[in-house]
Amino acid sequence: VPEGRVVVQPHFLYADDLDAAEPDTQDSALSTQPFVFAARLVPEKGVATLLKAHAAAPELPLTIVGEGPLAPDPLQPPFAGYQPHGETLRRIRAARALVFSSEWPEGCPCTIVEAMALGRPVIASRVPGAAELVEDGVTGLLFEPGDARGLAACMKKLHEDADLARRLGQAGRARYEERHSPEAGYARMVEVCRRVNLAV
Prior knowledge:
With 200 residues, this protein is of the alpha/beta class. It has helices at residues 16-19, 47-56, 85-93, 110-117, 130-133, 148-160, 162-180, 182-199; strands at residues 35-38, 62-65, 79-81, 97-100, 122-125, 140-143.
């Protein structure tokens, strides 16, 4: 298929529940805000890398939301086990940042888009999909897949710099509104349909 005829349509979210939880810029006890990981607990999601990073920096609060073959006792910190979608969003909104440690190519991860919509920065591995959504130093921080030290360094950076975390989160919210809100998604779809009609 000719490249000029291929169109990428990123996910957009019906954000009623997200918009109802506008980013909180008056967080108290910023130093206790946890980093949140929310995904299936399988090897390709980088769970082992995340645990190694946390072992290297155990002072950083971490919550792991999800279930899967790598899940231990859900009562054991930092594992929260399975949580309903609304509760997962609440935890992301209360987080210092979302951690996305996947070690395989992704599409357009909804969890990253949700975190951006909630005004939270994203620390993501530099894998296809995630690297297209997270702009390093602008809407979040990137590290190399499987690099536990690099992930720990990113977590420490945001843990120690609340202003940076807030700026990245605000930029992420702006990026969501620009590219991943329903309005932006519909506008792209209409434009694609217009182009198709002109081509036939």
